[in-house]
Amino acid sequence: MIRFVSIRLLRALVTILAVVTFAFVVLRISGDPAQVMLGPDVPQDAVDAFREAWGLDQPLWIQYLAYIHSIFTGDLGISMRDKESALQLVLERIPATLQLTIPALLLKLIIGIPAGVYAALHRQSGIDRGVIMLSILGFTIPSFVMGLLLVLIFSVTLGLLPSGGQGTWMHSLLPTITMSIGGIGLLARFSRSAMIEVMGQPYIRTASAKGLRWSDVVWQHALPNAAVPIVTIVGFMVGALLAGAVVVESIFSWPGIGRLLVVSVANRDLAVVQCILLLIAATMVVSNLIVDLLYGWLDPRLRGQAAH
Questions:
Q1: At residue 160, does pLDDT exceed 70?
Q2: Burial profile 197-223: b = 16 or more Cβ within 10 angstroms, e = fewer
Q3: Looking at the domain that runs over 86-307, which CATH code has it been given?
Q4: pLDDT digits (tens, 9 = 90+) for 114-144
Q5: Residue 103 reports pLDDT greater than 90
Q6: CA distances from 300 to 3, 73, 293, 297, 303 (A)
Q7: What's the first-to-final CA gap in the chain, in angstroms?
Q8: Counting C-beta atoms within 10 Å of the first and last residue's C-beta, which end of the chain has fewer, N or C?
């Protein structure tokens, strides 16, 4: 088990380093922050002074080594626009993002998994076909299209909910629903497929032949064995929560880290962008690491396979 965990931790660290390196290089070759911050009509000596003040005049490899060193020392840089700690700016926006992502995740779990399981247990019924149709619509419609559609219906046409901003709990309804619909459809499809596959296994027929109640067969034999693919999807969803907030927060003008990322990219605020990308990468890697550990707990055979 120790080797299993060690391999996963090493893989997680390598993944984070790769993401950090990729983000660092792309941000510096995609545009000059000095030109964006100061404008096109600023004299060249002012641009040179700005680049020297922020260390942008150094060779790229020196900037990279300095950035990696700063990560390990806990210093993620200063915002070029706000002149404040990039980490502090990001931490101030996290509560607003969690106000959307946590309810959205709960809706995905509470609605998606039971809907998929129920559809699998009533295969070929009208309910099963309805779940399939709604789930396909849910995860095939892009979130920005879904968000605009909800605004058009509930804000513009019916006037029931605000179209954007942060205030009362009603302001969070549309963005939360937008973030959850695709995940609900995806979880419903995967839960249904996993349950159908498990229900066709010989040990399910054996358990039924022994006279066990149908509810015991489902809860004690089918659901635990269908949990591995479902856990995989849930792990990906947890890791992608922050990344998925970028589009939704932009549509609904929600002051979270997703909207902060969009503004920072437009302004070439390198420290803030790198801090947010590091946070997103760490969230994805940690969630996948937890999924891997859950694999080993749900199916001990996987620990031996991973060790080899």
A1: yes
A2: ebbeeeebeebeeeeeeeeebbeebbb
A3: 1.10.3720.10
A4: 998 888 888 888 888 888 888 888 888 888 8
A5: yes
A6: 14, 38, 10, 6, 5
A7: 12
A8: C
Closest-CA residue to 218 (of 241, 240, 237, 191): 191
Residue 85, phi then psi, degrees to nearest 5: -60, 130
Q: Which of 123, 110, 134 is nearest to 193 (CA)?
A: 123
What burial letters (b/e) apply to 139-173, b meaning 16+ CB within 10 Å? Answer: beeebeebbeebbeebbeeeeebbbbebeeeebbb
pLDDT digits 0-9 by tens, 184-217 = 988 998 888 888 888 878 877 787 777 777 777 7
Q: Taking each helix axis from N to C terminus, what angle separates 86-107 and 257-266, rounded to the nearest 10 degrees?
A: 130
Percentage helix, strand, coil for the chain under 3-state DSSP, each rounded to 5: 80, 0, 20
* Residues 185/135, Cβ–Cβ less than 8 Å: yes
Domain ranges of the chain: 86-307
